[in-house]
Amino acid sequence: MLAWFSDLTARERRTMIACFGGWALDALDVMMFAFVIPALIAVLHMTVPEAGELATITLLISAFGGWIAGALSDRVGRVRILQITVIWYAVFTFLCGFAQNYQQLFWFRALQGLGFGGEWAAGAVLMGEVIRDKYRGRAVGIVQTGWAIGWGAAALFYTLFFAIMPQAIAWRAMFWIGILPAFLVFYIRRFVDEPDLPRDTRPMGTALTQIFAALKPPYLSITWRVALMVTGSQGGSYVLTIWLPTYLKTVKHMSSVGTGSYLLVLILGAFFGFLSGAYLADGIGRKATFMVSAIGSAGLLLVYMLAPLSNSEILIVSFLMGYISLMMFSPMGSFMTELFPTEVRGAGQGFCYNVGRGIGALFPAMVGFLAHRWGLGVAIASFGVVAYGVMVGALLMLPETRGRSVANIGVAD
To answer: How far apart are CA 122 and CA 124, in angstroms?
Structure first.
């Protein structure tokens, strides 16, 4: 299964390593917030809706960060924007650990979102352009497993810190370790080069016009459909991943150690889901992989939240939920790379993924607002199923892209 990796050039492997590291550390910084929500409610006296707002503001602002960073990467380079965005989100995650109240944490989280969105936009396009057509689906998909690694690291730090520290200090320590991604920039600067792109594919006009390049004909039609698909996938994913730690602790009454352990099982499932999605993307196609993941996620989410499961049964369903729900993100980068021509690829991919992420962020916010009326489990299940339904509807309007050469993508595609 890994024989193809030895066939990659040194440049392709170095790019994979850098983007894998960036995505893993990205997940570490972003997902740690989900673990500290109960502590923030207790220590900073936040309400559940306020916690939902903090989760949402990062994702909403990330939409603008990714959109702008993607467009700028078309003009000034993928690697340069990747470095800037990694440092940005690392610094503001670190500063979250010094917040004294809701208002300060709100602004630090908002600024963190600019870098968080931008890092994916630059890194995904870089991967799609450096890795050859034959291996693009699995290579970009395997880089996505870095998210499970970073998420798992956040769960381990949470379990450790909350076991040995009072929660008033432990939640701050979680954010302080968010400075770690900044050190990845030293590797990127030394070992990662810009893609070799033909000069005639470089964008014309100003940086401002490039930001809106994918929102004009002939690209607009594909742009809004892809953004809608991403809205559904991100909405469903964030509903689950942001609120699951709170659900396990407050509804299932698990301890911090128990919550961390159950989440690690879900994250282990996610790791294998990412891997499976990477190979399925090249095997059965991008769209079929998306469909299997979206429909399976909706069904399992209903079981997870509404069925009277014992703790041992929850453990099994957690693994399956992580496996099927995160599988959809493996083909995401290669799919969008193959839909946009080179001159608008960064702008288009950055807009679709991050605006979809920003709108999808409204789903966990609605869970926070309605949890006290419906119950947290019902709210999570309801908004999660709606989100996956949106994704399926958008997929029915999109083409299959497996096997496309990025050098030959034209307006008609």
So the answer is: 6
